[in-house]
TrEMBL record:
It comes from Brevibacterium yomogidense. It comes from the Bacteria. Keywords: Signal. This is Uncharacterized protein. Residues 180-191 have a biased composition (Acidic residues). PROSITE patterns: PROKAR_LIPOPROTEIN. Residues 1-22 form the signal peptide. Residues 378-389 have a biased composition (Basic and acidic residues). Residues 192-214 have a biased composition (Low complexity). Residues 175-218, 373-394 are annotated as: Disordered.
Length: 511
């Protein structure tokens, strides 16, 4: 931004600066007469002045929009700018247009979602909500895009206090608010796309058109252990106001802290809440079951490492047989008594996650979850992993674990703790080349074959070895390898040298 425009904009707090740049591949767009473009924009009712210096390449200009412009002038200016872009052959969807208004930066076309119906209009540049956005207090910076204002609060502003005030205010913009940022928390954000409620699935922060420093903020989903405090809601929505008040009241009564929350058009809520410990879940159960018909949309995180996820209120990831908190506490007690850890229960995914420190505990957990005393649904999945390989999850229906654990336990005993078992009707194990013996060498190959031959399974099992070249084959517990192939490519292609040697050694040990 030219220095001559920057100072008045900052002093007024309401001045707007518009930057237009060329987009598209060379030769793919008609040549744009930027001087005529600037003159046309200067004549629009909300535009106070135009500076054609731009960035010095002749393909940008800035326009200051009067802070005194009324709603009619702002609406007309937005519509005519879109028409001018269309006439010039410059696509608004490629974001050739940037508006800076006080702390806000507008990128690309700025439609909005109606606070009552959620209807999203992307084919417009709607400037009429700027007065309402400027009325929001303690906004350090903000991005306006796809009907959403993604704002970062000023230092010292409390997010909850700010949300409780802001949600009562007029407007038609969806707001995604973050607390004041720290320099060490800069992240890269994804591209913005319209969300199910007319907002965005993720918002990317940016600096002004003048090239000031930018910090990209990202929304961290609820399945992450690294939650970033944030809140989404709609201005001008009574349903949102009531939902926010109800959420905070329930959280206070349960001694819980709201970390992230998204309030939708009809007042449905998805939220992540933190609790001091597992014991607090009992109190929370009493409060939330009184306030809400179901726990759908809520994810609870305890200070001692349990994550209890009841799915999304808008994505229908909820099971009618979702476990009660009492059932979860009972399951947690059973698992802890065995020396393992219940780290997550997801009603949306219909799965419980367990960490077992060794083979003995693995077998004990398998027996427990497949027994009639297991408090969760027997058809829901239980995922098991070793603490040294947290990403190597073996997942089976709870009722299958007792009869299927032998293969995985034998592999763990031999050091292959990142092996996984995820078969449905039959055993299917995958062994990754990583922790444990290297199965592409003679010693590692012999160790893996001995571990598999030392286990028992019914019918044919599918066995996959993953390296830069994979090997997959089927076999009974004492049989030869059937249909050995590399699943990455043509099934008829020759096996790699180590894979062929493995198949030969496997067949040599057949009974």
């Amino acid at each position: 931004m030219p220095a001559g425009l920057r100072a008045p904009a900052l002093l007024s707090g309401l001045a707007l600066v518009l930057t237009v740049t060329a987009c598209g591949e060379v030769g793919s767009e008609p040549e744009v007469d930027y001087e005529a473009f600037a003159e046309s924009v200067a004549e629009l009712p909300a535009v106070e002045s135009v500076d054609t210096d731009g960035d010095g390449d002749g393909e940008a200009f800035t326009a200051e929009i009067s802070a005194e412009a009324d709603e009619a002038a702002l609406r007309t200016t937005g519509r005519r700018i879109m028409r001018l872009l269309g006439d010039a052959g410059v696509g608004y969807d490629a974001s050739p247009l940037t508006i800076v208004s006080g702390p806000y930066t507008l990128e690309g076309a700025y439609g909005y979602s109606d606070p009552d119906t959620g209807t999203y209009r992307s084919d417009r540049l709607d400037l009429t909500d700027l007065p309402h956005l400027h009325a929001l207090p303690d906004v350090a910076s903000g991005i306006l895009r796809n009907g959403t204002a993604t704002v970062t609060l000023a230092e010292g502003a409390d997010l909850r206090t700010w949300v409780e005030d802001a949600v009562t205010r007029d407007g038609h913009t969806r707001v995604h608010a973050y607390p004041a940022e720290e320099d060490s928390q800069e992240t890269e954000g994804p591209d913005d796309t319209p969300g199910a409620d007319g907002g965005t699935d993720a918002q990317t922060a940016a600096g002004s058109a003048a090239g000031s420093s930018a910090v990209d903020r990202r929304w961290v989903p609820a399945d992450s252990d690294d939650l970033e405090e944030s809140f989404r809601f709609h201005l001008g929505s009574e349903a949102n106001t009531e939902a926010v008040q109800k959420l905070f009241t329930a959280a206070d009564a349960a001694d819980a802290t709201v970390v992230t929350a998204e309030v939708y058009t009809e007042g449905d809520v998805d939220a992540d809440l933190e609790l001091q410990s597992l014991d607090a879940l009992e109190q929370l159960d009493d409060v939330f079951t009184d306030e809400y018909d179901a726990l759908t949309g809520f994810t609870f995180h305890t200070g001692d490492g349990l994550r209890l996820d009841y799915g999304s209120s808008v994505e229908s990831h909820y099971s009618p047989s979702a476990p009660s908190i009492d059932d979860v506490l009972s399951a947690h007690e059973q698992i802890e008594d065995l020396g393992a850890s219940l780290t997550s229960v997801s009603a949306g995914l219909r799965e419980a996650e367990v960490e077992a420190p060794d083979t003995g505990v693995l077998r004990d957990v398998a027996d427990a979850v497949s027994s009639s005393s297991w408090p969760l649904e027997p058809t829901e999945r239980v995922s098991l992993h070793h603490p040294d390989s947290p990403d190597a999850d073996s997942s089976l229906a709870a009722e299958w674990w007792g009869e299927r654990v032998d293969v995985l336990a034998s592999l763990w005993d031999a050091g292959f703790i990142d092996a996984t078992e995820r078969g449905e009707s039959a055993t299917a194990v995958t062994i990754h080349r990583g922790q444990g013996p290297d199965f592409t060498t003679a010693a590692g190959r012999d160790a893996l074959i001995a571990a598999l031959r030392g286990a028992d399974w019914q019918a044919n099992a599918r066995i996959t070895l993953e390296d830069s070249q994979h090997l997959t084959f089927e076999s009974t517990a004492d049989g030869k390898a059937l249909n050995p192939h590399n699943p990455q490519g043509d099934a008829s292609a020759e096996l790699s040298e180590w894979a062929q040697e493995f198949v030969d050694a496997w067949d040599a040990t057949a009974g």
